[in-house]
Amino acid sequence: MGNFGNLMDGFVIALSGYHVALMVAGVLMGILVGVLPGLGAPNGVSLLLPLTFTMDPVSAIILLTSMYWGALFGGSTTSILFNIPGEPSSVATTFDGYPMAKKGEAGRALTLAFLSAATGALFGVVVITALSGWVAEFALKFSSPEYFAVYFLTFASFIGMGSASPFKTLVSMMLGFAFATVGMDTVSGSLRLTFGFTDLIKGISFLVAVIGLFGIGELIVTMEEGLRFEGIRAKVTPRDVLHTIARMPRHWVTLLRSCIVGSWMGITPGGPTAASFMSYGLAKRFSRRKEGFGSGEPAGVVAPEAADHSAGTCAILPMMALGVPGSATAAVMMGGLMIWGLNPGPMLFIERPDFVWGLIASMYLGNVVAVVLVLSTVPLFAAILRIPLAIIGPVIVIVCFIGAYTVASSTTDLWFVLAFGVAGYAFKKLDYPIAPLVLAMVLGDKAEGAFQQSMIMSKGGLGIFFSNGLVSTIMALALLLLFWPLAGMLVSRLRRHGM
Amino acid sequence: MLKKTTFTFVMLASALGVVAAEAAWKPERPIEFVVTSGAGGGTDNIARTIQAAIQKNKLTDANIIVTNKGGGSGAEGFVYSAMAKGDPYKFTFGTNNEYLLPYVAKLGFKSTDLVPVAAMALDEFLIWVHKDSPYKDAKSFIEAAKANPESIKFGGSQSKDTDQTLVSIISEATGAKFTYIPFKSGGEAAVQLAGAHIDANVNNPNENIGQFKAGMVRPLCVFSPKRMAKGPKVSGDMAWSDIPTCKEAGIPVETYQMPRTQWLPAGVPEDAVKWYIDLLAKVRQTEEWKQYIERTSQTEVFMSPSELAKFAKDEEAKTVAVFKREGWLAQ
Question: pTM for the full model?
Answer without folding.
Answer: 0.85
